[in-house]
Amino acid sequence: MGRGYSDVMRFMSAGAGITGRGILDFLLPPRCLTCDTVTGHKGHGLCGACWSRVRFLEQPWCLRYGTPFEHEVGVDALSPRAIAFPPAFDRARGACWYSGPARDLVLGLKFARRRHLALSMGRWMARAGTELLRDRPLIAPVPLHPRRLLQRRFNQSADLAKVVASLCDSEFVPDLLRRTRHTRAQVGLNATERQKNLRGAIALTPDAGSRVFGRPVLLVDDVMTTGATMAACVKVLKQAGARQIDVLVFAIADPAGMAREHGAELKDKL
Ligand SMILES: [Zn+2]
């Protein structure tokens, strides 16, 4: 067979493939979710250059905080931070550090209303949280205050939680928790100020108590910084008798990076 034949076959099979989704890809080729370069593949949604800049959180990691260790350690090891400052939740996991393209995805979803990003982000999260999803927990987003919900028109954490729940066949409970009062933005506050800002700001929705009792709950948010918001949610869920409370976020803020942004004082508290 000459080269002409294989060219014809390639042309014919390409023609046969251009149906439905194929036509859509031909007219609107898949683009990188952060830099908009044509990727030519559907995969994880990022081009090679952006993908290589994502700082994924890989095992071995701290059992409680989900932050990776630089050296090989035993199973279920705890980081110095988890020993010094045990978190309110049982286990936290995140897909990546909050930097570079991962940060762009978070900001794109939250502020640019690019809600389709939640699909790829939720897939990454489900992979990172495999061990948390085994018990089929109730999956609930960290709530937004109604005023902020009105401004933004959607809760980005609820979008992510919905995708994660659909991937592991767990129950998605978008209204498990609610904000009882408006709180000032957490950006620029240190850990103590964040806790104070959130005191009494989160409650269980009136009929949610009976659903939570004795059940594992997975709280979902886009980013975890000091974990103060999570701690406020966990407190409420513990009071309602939740059996296990885990946390799954898209990105975890790197304490060293946060310290560079907010000063050395914060580094000690993270
Ligand atoms: Zn890219």
Automatic annotation (TrEMBL):
* Gene3D superfamilies, alphabetized: 3.40.50.2020
Q: Name one Pfam family in it.
A: Pribosyltran
Report the residue ranges that make up the Phosphoribosyltransferase domain in this protein. 207-259
Report domain Double zinc ribbon positions. 23-72
Q: Which family does it belong to?
A: Belongs to the ComF/GntX family.
This protein's name: Amidophosphoribosyltransferase
